[in-house]
Prior knowledge:
Order of helices and strands: HHHHHHHHHHH
Number of helices: 11
Helix content: 55-70%
Radius of gyration: 26 Å
Strand content: under 5%
Distance between the termini: 111 Å
Number of strands: 0
Structural class: mainly alpha
Amino acid sequence: MKTSRPAPRARAAPVARPARAGATPRRSPASAKAEQRVRDIVRVGRDVLSERGFERATIPEIAQRLAISEATVFTYFHGKRELCVRVISDWYDEITAEIAEGLPKRKSVRAQLEFFVHAHLRLFLGHGTGMCALVLSEGRDKGAADLGAAVLPLHRRYTAPLMDLLSRGQADGSIRADVPLRLLRSLVLGPMEQMLWEVVSSKKPIDIDAAAAALSALLWAAMATPGAELAALRALRGNVAQALDHAARV
């Protein structure tokens, strides 16, 4: 006589864990359609968060604009905080790549600094002040429950090219070596953040080209090694004199 096997035990439903800063989407897209859905949610999420700010933006509005249910959004993101981190992360990826690709490393350190200052202002203000206001306000580390803890590492990665060019400037003698790199970084970013806040709060556009040129000149005057340019000109004059002397002897 056959003995009946006991029915297999039902597995307990997985317990949902709270979202972490910078957590990955709730469900990894398993198809091209799902990947496109995530891209659409992030795209519209950026629009709503830029227009409303973090506090006023809502998942229902994002879902309504996409003509999908709120449940569909929650399928891929735990909530508004995680979606906002993804939006800011993708935005930082875009501008970080543009800075890294455009930085003229074959030019002087001063020219590279001028590029970074101009690109920073242009990228933060190039599409209005919405994303700029979102990043400036939510990028501050106000505690473990805030977005700042997740955004700050993105900001550090974005400023890595700046730290690199400042380091190279100290190495070649064009930037003063008696000031720590972190202080030099703050010297560059601090005035730009203040400038961006003024644009956001006043809602008055600025002439980015003129502002970047004036700020770059001011920054270089503060961080350049005293006499470095004069020494460079003297070295150039010496090289030219040697070349002319050699040409005359040939």
